[in-house]
Specification:
globular, 35 strands, seven-stranded mixed sheet, alpha/beta, five-stranded antiparallel sheet, Non-ribosomal Peptide Synthetase Peptidyl Carrier Protein, Chain A
């Protein structure tokens, strides 16, 4: 090709690329006046293309120009001239080839894993001693070529890093900052920090070297809060070491992994389970640093629960591109795999973002069984990949596809399942989950192989009352929420209403949790810790409701924005924008709004200004975009400038982000605003109704509590005296049933019963109900024939008040602490049934506040088998939310009791009792609407 034709070709590619970029910019920012772009225009600031938009630009450019760009080209380019240089050097495009078969993992599903390990270091050493040559990680630096890291190599490398930290005189328990990209040095440094009994502080590495200095300086606030004495990073950061040390007086050394590595020697330090393992920082770089404190015990409790929650085994292969400075990548991918003894196939986030198909191709090539990603990644693969990108894929091995870290959208799941079905992907593999750093990672998991669970609720009832009432199939205005599964076995979850009271089923409130994996708080931030902890419960800052044991996340009480899996705190950008000349300080709202096109959230900045001239407004918009890019490494999707009074505020002057979002989504934020006085009047009037409704609800709760307890005393004392004195057990039982029915009606508890005709009329039987509330016995008394008696725990017989009450009704007692007495009590119950007495036994033995059907004890089933009488499973629904464990006041509600068909024992021995138990439990599990907690 001669010089003239080459120049013409270059010019045409340049014009085509800039045209594509301008077209994409206008699609993403239709309200913005985008000027013509030049080769020196900033991709981020002037074109407004963030990381997701860059991926779209790459895909469009490859199609238009017929080239195959390197993965890093679009992500690292600052200007279009940088991108044009990559286009000039790129080879002609060619279809992706089918991935080559990968080696087997060499592990068996039946192998042991270190459940008894007390620290992550013990877990690593357990594997390194048993199979040192087995690859723990296959790192795909370019997305395709693997570098194997064995358990033995990881252990040896970590020991060298630990020795290096000791040589630097880093004290045990001292935080060590780690700013490294994915790869062998990161893994060895992280584990070496733990081997030295130090605290790892993973930091977000820069995506573009050109902006290294500003990125590292932003991370300085986190390092200052952690008081890290050592920063382990790459060579380029050392060049600005003097600047960093001037900002961080505690920082003594900045070293690379190669410099840190030292030959092991001296005393080996041993961390304990209660020692801090690492700090997971959740805040942005300029806001209040919040380092979640996670101990080895916290981490292992959560990791073990997640391993059981997804039925992971050493034979599994986890494929991940998630960043290792984020809990979902660090814990959910690497550390879970490390403990379970499975295999991790890892690529960098940049490799995925540069070419998303590589994630799917790695799953296909390595026969991946488990993989996780935020919602936007599934949407990206479902909507942006061509058939040629998917050619040759086989995703049939993928058994659990976790979707978490940002809101899960049903349309994304449906699009992904439909798009990948021809390549062996099963929709049942999709598993929405919920978690957060304050619980290490996992809180709720969807059952493997079930598929997504969607709940359609009536829009008006939910938006106005916060009640998730199921909507009919013909309700075109219904809201849809995606279930995130049930709590992991070690986690308790509750929903708390605005008054701090535990909410009923299908009532929206704040999601709180507790358990052995919950953090003790934020590092060196007592104020933030106090805000999030409440008597052992941790406030997630998220909103949701529970229905049939499933958690549905509906929004955020806090104003966190989750964009492409990254947390953005609006306060940071609001403060920066507020000081821009021409913007009214304190009149800036930054919020997120769902973007159905990308599957993630859009970042919107609304700010008040007195400027009116178009050129002045355009300059302000440009300045705000520059600020966002500098502060967050991402431009806003939209900047809305409004006149004074345009940003909604509370009477006390606080910005109302949620109200601003609502106006934006209705298209009303850009409309000409009314006067400030009129706005305040309208605001006061609009808030009057909801305020009165909240006050009425609060007053109603107080009145109901007084009424319900008043009726308890009004009924309880006379009833106890009557039962203690009235002759004739039949009369006493009839009196009890009448009183219970009347009390339930007075306190607004409605009970329906089905299957009463299944109870044999001519012979005795044993009833086995599930147990969820203190009131279970009362509702059973209300609906069952009076001839039934209960088998109660011996503790009730040791207190004179309940003892007199229960004995006068013929109640039998069972001792749970004395084995010999327990046998005698069971024999007495069997004799009573043989003599014609109907018996009610709660086979769970007790109940807890959290939903779930627990394992059944065999006592009642042995009684039925040995007495040779029918056994009937009884399913109770609705009582847990009416009065759950730990609550002092019931709430009005509806409950149902369903009595199943009689089960006839097939003998009188132990095996016959076990069969009865298994059949009865299976039927109750199908009907109770709660998760299975059998272990």
């Amino acid at each position: 090709m001669d010089m003239a034709s080459h120049s013409t070709s270059t010019a045409s590619r340049e014009a085509a690329l800039l045209e594509l970029a301008l077209e994409l910019s206008r699609e993403l920012h239709p309200q913005r006046k985008t000027r013509a772009l030049t080769p020196d225009s900033s991709i981020e600031r002037e074109a407004g293309l963030d990381s997701l938009a860059r991926v779209e630009l790459l895909l469009r450019a490859e199609k238009r120009l017929g080239v195959r760009l390197p993965d890093h080209a679009v992500l690292s380019a600052e200007t279009f001239r940088d991108l044009l240089a990559a286009v000039e050097e790129a080879p002609a495009g060619k279809p992706a080839s089918a991935p080559a078969p990968a080696p087997e993992s060499g592990a068996s599903a039946e192998e042991e894993w270190p459940e008894s390990a007390k620290t992550l270091v013990e877990a690593l050493e357990w594997h390194a001693q048993r199979h040192p040559d087995r690859p723990q990680i296959q790192y795909l630096a370019d997305g395709e070529t693997p570098e194997a890291i064995t358990y033995g190599e990881l252990s040896a490398g970590a020991r060298r890093m630990a020795a290096g930290l000791r040589a630097l005189d880093v004290e045990p328990g001292r935080p060590v900052a780690i700013m490294l990209p994915s790869g062998r040095p990161y893994f060895e440094t992280f584990m070496g920090t733990l081997m030295a009994s130090c605290v790892a502080v993973p930091l977000y590495p820069p995506t573009r070297i050109q902006r290294l200095e500003e990125h590292v300086c932003r991370q300085a606030r986190i390092m200052a809060n952690a008081q890290a004495s050592v920063l382990v990073t790459f060579e380029e950061v050392k060049k600005i070491g003097g600047l960093l040390k001037s900002l961080l007086p505690d920082l003594r050394a900045i070293v690379t992994p190669a410099e840190l590595a030292s030959e092991p020697g001296g005393e080996r330090l041993r961390a304990r389970g209660g020692d801090l393992a690492f700090l997971q920082y959740t805040s942005g770089s300029t806001g209040e640093p919040k380092g979640v404190m996670l101990t080895h015990a916290n981490l292992l409790a959560n990791i073990h629960a997640m391993i059981r929650g997804c039925a992971a085994t050493p034979a599994d292969t986890v494929v991940s591109w998630l960043p290792l400075y984020h809990d979902m990548g660090l814990i959910g991918a690497w550390l879970v795999v490390l403990c379970a003894g499975a295999r991790l196939v890892l690529m960098s986030p940049a490799t995925f973002m540069g070419r998303p198909a590589r994630w799917l191709r790695a799953i296909s090539a390595w026969k991946g069984t488990l993989s996780a990603a935020p919602n936007f990644a599934y949407d990206l693969c479902a909507t942006k990949l061509d058939d040629v990108d998917l050619e040759g894929l086989d995703l049939s091995s993928w058994r659990v596809a976790f979707n978490g870290a940002e809101p899960v959208h049903l349309e994304t799941l449906e699009r992904f399942a439909a798009r990948l079905a021809p390549y062996g992907f099963r929709g049942e593999a999709l598993a929405p989950v919920y978690g957060l750093a304050e619980n290490c990672l996992g809180v709720t998991f969807s059952p493997p192989g079930r598929g997504p669970q969607a709940d359609r609720v009536k829009r008006r009832e939910f938006l106005e009352k916060g009640i998730a009432e199921p909507a009919g199939a013909d309700d075109a205005h219904a809201l849809t929420f995606v279930g995130c599964g049930s709590p992991l076995t070690t986690v308790e979850v509750r929903i708390v209403d605005e008054a701090g009271r535990e909410a009923a089923d299908r009532e929206q409130g704040r999601i709180e949790f507790r358990g052995p994996s919950a953090t003790a708080g934020y590092y060196r931030n007592a104020a933030a810790t106090r805000r999030v902890l409440d008597r052992g419960w941790v406030d997630s800052g998220d909103l949701g409701y529970i229905a049939e044991g499933e958690l549905y996340v509906t929004g955020r009480a806090k104003d966190l924005i989750i964009r492409a899996g990254r947390n953005i705190h609006p306060q940071e950008l609001e403060e920066a924008v507020g000081v821009v000349p021409g913007i009214r300080l304190g009149f800036v709202a930054v919020f997120g709004t769902h973007n159905a096109r990308s599957g993630t959230e859009r970042l919107v900045v609304a700010a008040e200004t007195r400027a009116t001239h178009p050129e002045d407004l355009e300059k302000l918009v440009s300045k705000i975009r520059d600020l966002s890019s500098e502060l967050l490494d991402a431009p806003p999707d939209d900047v809305v400038l409004v006149p004074p009074g345009g940003v909604p505020r509370t009477p006390s002057g606080k910005v109302r982000r949620s109200a601003c979002r609502a106006l934006y989504e209705k298209g009303e934020l850009r409309r000409k605003r009314r006067s400030a006085g009129l706005q305040m009047a309208r605001l006061a009037l609009s808030s009057l109704g909801p305020g009165l409704a909240r006050a009425a609800r609060a007053a109603g709760r107080v009145f109901y509590a007084a009424w319900s307890w008043g009726t308890v005393f009004a009924f309880g004392v006379p009833l106890w005296l009557a039962l203690a004195t009235v002759p004739g057990i039949a009369v006493r039982r009839a009196l009890l049933q009448f009183s219970v029915r009347l009390w339930l009606r007075l306190v607004g508890i409605r009970v329906s019963a089905a299957g009463l005709s299944n109870i044999p009329a001519e012979r005795p039987s044993v009833l086995v109900p599930n147990h969820a509330s203190y009131l279970d016995s009362f509702v059973l008394v209300a609906v069952l024939p009076p001839r039934f008696i209960f088998l109660a725990k011996k503790e009730f017989d040791r207190n004179v008040v309940p003892s007199v009450f229960l004995r006068r009704l013929g109640t039998l007692f069972a001792d749970r602490t004395d084995a010999e007495q327990s046998v005698q009590d069971a024999a007495a119950a069997t004799d009573a049934v043989r003599a014609g007495q109907g018996l009610v036994v709660f086979p769970e033995g007790t109940f807890h506040r959290a939903p779930g059907l627990r394992p059944f004890k065999l006592g009642g089933f042995l009684v039925a088998a040995q007495a040779g009488v029918p056994l009937l499973p009884v399913t109770i629904r609705g009582m847990r939310s009416i009065l759950r464990d730990g609550q002092k006041v019931p709430r009005p509600g509806r409950a149902s009791i369903s009595i199943g068909a009689p089960l006839i024992p097939e003998g009188t021995d132990w095996n016959a009792a076990v069969k009865l138990r298994d059949h009865a439990r299976a039927e109750i599990l199908r009907g109770c609407g709660e998760p299975d907690l059998f272990e």
